[in-house]
Amino acid sequence: MILAKPTHAVVAMANNGTIGRDGALPWHLRADLQLFRRLTMGHALLMGRKTYESIGKPLPGRDTFVLTKQANLEIPGVQTIRTIDDVYPQLGTKILFVVGGAEIYRQLLPLCQVIHLTKVLAEPVGDAKLSPIDLSNYRCTEQMYLPANAENDWPAMYQRWER
Ligand SMILES: NC(=O)c1ccc[n+]([C@@H]2O[C@H](COP(=O)([O-])OP(=O)(O)OC[C@H]3O[C@@H](n4cnc5c(N)ncnc54)[C@H](OP(=O)(O)O)[C@@H]3O)[C@@H](O)[C@H]2O)c1
């Protein structure tokens, strides 16, 4: 699999590697959701079939590509694809954002040129987990602290990493 065009990833990950629980996010972090919306608006999202099912609908203002191995799966309002290579001819000038879940990140995170990483400063229980992301070939070009409050379960640190 070759990522032929600049590709970003957006991932929120707790200190213990947790990214999901019971098919959903294990936290409510409004600031991070707003950041996700701002980053991806007008562009294209690539997600695994299970993450799409947890969202349940196409996100407005973005093209959604759902990776699946099922030959006949069709979902109204999104493009189902069998390999990431199917995305590029349809991308135009839009940036492709890899947005999870765990299976997809494991395959594609190491290939992304830019990683938008929200470090959730907590240790929640979860069943979707990632190993620490190898950022040795990336540099951090932006960092922003997101405090906990009534709309954000945990404090978090957003970081933009560029290869
Ligand atoms: N914290 C975050 O930033 C974040 C972001 C997104 C999701 N999540 C969480 O992550 C969890 C879901 O992750 P997950 O690992 O269970 O599922 P997933 O990565 O969302 O989806 C897995 C599915 O994607 C398809 N797939 C995977 N690799 C493929 C390939 N090479 N070619 C074609 N299809 C492929 C398969 O679909 P088929 O079975 O249909 O073949 C597979 O079952 C949820 O808890 C979700 O809330 C967290």
How is this structure best described in words?
- The chain is an alpha/beta fold and 163 residues long.
- The protein has one domain (7-162): Dihydrofolate Reductase, subunit A, CATH 3.40.430.
- The chain has helices at 30-40, 49-55, 102-108; strands at 7-14, 18-20, 44-48, 63-67, 79-81, 96-98, 114-120, 128-129, 139-146, 156-162.
- The strands form two sheets. It has an eight-stranded mixed beta sheet with strand order 5-4-3-6-1-7-10-9. A two-stranded antiparallel sheet has the order 2-8.
- The chain is globular.
- NADP nicotinamide-adenine-dinucleotide phosphate (NAP) is lined by residues 11-12, 19-20, 23-25, 47-51, 54, 67-70, 82, 99-104, 107, 128.
- Residues 11-12, 19-20, 23-25, 47-51, 54, 67-70, 82, 99-104, 107, 128 line the site of NADP nicotinamide-adenine-dinucleotide phosphate.
